[in-house]
Specification:
The protein starts with 7 loop residues before the first strand and ends in a 9-residue tail after the last strand. It has helices at 21-32, 72-76, 94-106, and strands at residues 8-14, 37-42, 45-46, 65-66, 81-83, 110-112. With 121 residues, the chain is α/β, with parallel strands linked by helices. The protein is 25% helix and 19% strand.
Length: 121
Amino acid sequence: MQDKTISLIAGGDVGPVIEPVEQLAELVAPTLNKADFRIAQCDRVYSKRGVYQEWKTIPGGERACLPPRMASIFEAANIDVVSLASNHALDWGYEPMTDTITHFQEMGMQVIGAGENIEEA
């Protein structure tokens, strides 16, 4: 009889602000690599564009937009699906969010929770 199970690991609020981020992925890689499927909730956007929306009242939003190279933690952790449904997704405006979607897709990851419209999200 064939085993019809898969293992899933999910994590949230991923988005370290101190480099090198890949070293943090190395700490959890032994556990993550045991799973068949990995999903992570991204707590940042990765872009060179955008302006911090001063009207935001959520603490920490000023650090919610990071250089695209720092998204490498998701690749180093071998993440399959990234959720951008975060309270910080639009702290820096619409363009950084769409840049982040494109960046993750270019790394071969599926993105959920944000998009050009509700169907994409």
